[in-house]
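The pair is quoted verbatim underneath.

:::
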Amino acid sequence: MIAEFSWDQFQFLLEAARWTLLLSALSFVVGGIAGFIVALMRTSHSQILRTVSAIYIQIVQGTPVLIILFLTFYGLAIYGYKLPPMVAATVAMTIYSSAYLGEIWRGCIEAVPVQQWEASTALAMNRWQQLRYVILPQAVRISLPPTVGFLVQIIKNTSIASIIGLVELTQAGKLVSNATFQPFLVFPIVAGIYFIFCYPLSRFSFALERKLHAHR
């Protein structure tokens, strides 16, 4: 029986959108913590830490996020670790986010003029004091536009979680479309919800970038 698209189905899309936002938030926060560690490793004096973090970034960035999701959900299940779809998607997106944010923030740390390092060294600061009081405050300001821009990518990429059955926004759109046979109505609505989430962030990122260049 073919159902008509109704307010209840629109509410179903909105409820599924909450899972999209939750997955995005978890991926960004946990991935950001891991990415910060990766960035510190990439800028460390230790050659071993720099090499390990560089290899990690190259592997993750060279692997489609969908493959990471399959390995997390299906691969671990082979060894008896059957993760719920939400957990598997969060782990996969966290790995993906940590590599990209780590590289973004590594570039921002290295973008701080070398004279800042030299000046803080002249003040007898150790490396952690240099990072905390001199380098990171400047790197954070530089990193805001690309970080907010990458958050938009995270929100859009959460749609891959529909592959493993997580009923987020894309999967909800598929279910409603299958029930109503109205894909040209349902999926533009889904796209519109994504647009409502992403467009303000994109404009915010652009505004931050313009403000940063203006200060320069």
Remarks:
- The chain has eight helices and no strands.
- The CA atoms of residues 73 and 88 lie 5 Å apart.
